[in-house]
Amino acid sequence: MFKNFKIPHTFTIVFGIIIACAIATWIIPGGQFDRKNVVVDGSERSIVVTDSYHKVDHEPQTWQIFTSFFKGFNRTSGIIVFILMIGGAFWVLNYTNAINRGIFSFIKTTDKLKRFKLLNKIGVHNIIFTLIILLFSLFGAVFGMSEETIAFIVIFVPLTISMGYDSVVGVLICYVAAHVGFAGAMLNPFTIGIAQGLSGLPTFSGLEYRMICWLILTILAIVFILIYAAKVKKNPEKSFMYDLDSYWREKVNVQQNDLVRQKSTISTWIVYSFIAIILIFCSFKLPNTSITIGGETFKMAIFPILTLLFIPLGLFTLLKSVHSFILTLLLMTVLVLVVGVLGYQWYIMEIAALFFAMGIFSGFAFNLSFDTILKEFLVGCKDIMNAALIVGLAGGIIVILEDGKVVDTILYAISRSLNGTGREGALGAMYMIQNGLNLIIPSGSAKAALTIPMMAEFSDIIGIHRQLTVLAFQFGDGFTNMFTPASGVLIGVLGVAKIPYSRWAKFILPYILILIVIGFLLLLPPLYLHFNGF
Questions:
Q1: Distance, CA of 13 to CA of 3 (rounded, Å)
Q2: By CB atoms within 10 Å of each CB, which of 32, 57, 472, 526 scores lowest?
Q3: Is residue 30 within 8 Å of residue 58, measured between CB atoms?
Q4: How far apart are CA 89 and CA 389, in angstroms?
Q5: What residues contact residue 4 under an 8 Å CB cut-off, 6+ apart?
Q6: Are the beta carbons of 76 and 487 closer than 8 angstroms?
Q7: Are 45 and 38 a contacting pair, CB within 8 Å?
Q8: How confident is the model over 373-388, as pLDDT tens digits?
């Protein structure tokens, strides 16, 4: 019987979860907490008032199963548009063959490094993957990188395929690395900053122990990813995606003689001059940028530095080939992205606009007409449409539960179950509650506003430091983000990488379970030992 069982499509899985949630609204009684507005780090947030739970008439969901798709689109519209714009921009970039040339040159360079005995013994690819993982884990830990990883999937999946690995490795070194950093974050303003503010704790206090947690979780991620990558490299057929990765293998299987180096044209020089003028203008308009990392703010002359970097580098690559110049545009895009997020609080709208501009400039630099650029952009949107649709459908999960007025009832029942469990039991219960809630409410800031006010007071009663409550929330919010189909970011990443959710869930679940166990063990030392801030 099981031989003929076919794993459902991602749409089917998500729609099945929506139906299950709709059934739950018929069984679970309705209830609500009162809420009040508080200001946390300059932003007003609506939080739950402790002991204010009261019953209300529940609203069983029936035909709303179908309207949840529409509401889910409204709820996740930002991520959906972000995915479409990223897909279109990179399709234009791929049309120029610049990424293929860059990947081919990168692989040639790494092959040359193998002549060094020490590097060859360690594994050149292992060193490269470790550095990438550390970088993205740090991004997740410092400024909460999450949605931004969608843009990098288009680069890393073709790269890992070309290196003899699979699309899963491409997702692991980027998306999973960032979310491991997100879970073990030291300075993440979207989780730690908000949760500590709601708990009445000094912002980013307890930094030292969080650094230890981040290091342990990142090392574990590196080991897990390198072991899987080595297994796929040794025997590609052991990959979870061997059959479906034929799409990527065909796409990146470009022979060296097909990648003809093209000289720069007048259009390329015009693009170079235009971007140089923009950077020079920004250097005078924004001579100093305030970079906020944790609670510290540093003033740096970022745009003057970027200008001094781009002018000689752009000129050098212009003289080399148009492909090299387009790769310089990609590099500058990534650097401006980091500056925008850290210095100007950019989110998905600004990042999408940045990559959209990169796609247009890349097309013009390659001497494409505006009509051709837009045509290729639309082809890219069409190619990525499945990912966007799945994100909208996944957004309907929480819509059903909220409209059925059962979310607060679930939370109230959970909070009552914590009584009488003891310090260790209560801490473990809070941790598992956060993991469970994250399966249906993947937004860290929303979940903090929903749970932290109650759990902070409960921790006072049972003698647990509020810092531990925040740490339990932080781990619980981070690990299951990499598994829950309610996460628009995860569904978007898998859609871009062409990985069905069912295969991803089967692959990543054992690792998530290990992380959950490690997370609980990391919660115990501050319960018995003194750490600064705990």
A1: 20
A2: 57
A3: yes
A4: 18
A5: none
A6: no
A7: yes
A8: 999 999 888 877 877 7
